[in-house]
Amino acid sequence: MTRIIPSFWLIVVLMVVGAACSKKNHASKIEPTDHVLVGKSWKEVNIEVFQNDSLQKNITKQFMKSDLDDVIIFNPDGTYFFDEGISKARTASAQIYQRGLWQINELNQLTFIELNGDSTTYSIEEMSPEKLIIKLPAKKNDLFYVMTYVPLK
Predict the structure, then answer these.
(1) Domain, as residue range, for 68
(2) Secondary structure class of 35 (helix, strand, coil)
(3) How do strand 143-151 and strand 79-83 relate by DSSP bridges?
(4) How many other β-carbons are positioned within 10 Å of the β-carbon of residue 37?
(5) DSSP secondary structure string, 108-140?
(6) Where are the beta strands (DSSP E) in the chain?
(7) Residues 6+ apart with CB under 8 A from 57
(8) I need a surface site. Which of 67, 104, 142, 150 has the fewest CB within 10 A?
(9) Is residue 38 part of a domain?
């Protein structure tokens, strides 16, 4: 009988700890806005370079047409993939060229975590059913890139 009581309390403690950890993990994820991205193919339509808060250059036209029809697809299970779109620069290129996990945190940041463990975090400037604008800091000179995506119709 004395062995049953300590085992019972061990199970209760583990359940309480597990519940607390579960709640903590969910608190860092922003649920209300996640659905805005899910279920659509998001196409990049504008790429701008800023230094500090000043627009330096719109570089969208520097990209090949085959790059500008690529799409990001956000799945409700927290996975994503980049799809080459209709046209490819090289026919041998994989149709799906990047996969991983995505998440939005309480700081309004979108993070892509690739399968190899690399991650990239963007600040969300605007997010609606019609538009996603994200900002990526560059590594020098206070430069950052602002990318605008819209869902394919």
Answers:
(1) 31-151
(2) helix
(3) unpaired
(4) 22
(5) SEEEEEETTS-EEEEEEEEE-SS-EEEEEE-SS
(6) 41-51, 54-58, 71-74, 79-83, 96-104, 109-114, 119-127, 132-137, 143-151
(7) 48, 49
(8) 142
(9) yes
The model's pLDDT over 17-27, given as tens digits with 9 standing for 90+, comes to: 343 343 333 33
Residue 62 is given by DSSP the state G
Distance CA 12, CA 4 (A): 12
Mean local confidence (pLDDT), 48-73: 88
Q: What pTM was estimated for this model as a whole?
A: 0.72
pLDDT in tens, 118-149: 999 999 999 999 999 999 988 777 899 999 99
Of 139 and 82, more confident: 82
Q: CA-based diameter of the chain, in Å?
A: 77
- pLDDT above 90 covers a percentage of the chain that reads 44
User: CA 72 → CA 16, 22, 48, distances in Å?
Assistant: 39, 29, 18
Phi, psi of 115 (to 5 degrees): -60, -25
CA-nearest of 60, 74, 145 to 112 is 74
Residue 14 has pLDDT above 70, yes or no: no
Question: Is 7 within a domain?
Answer: no
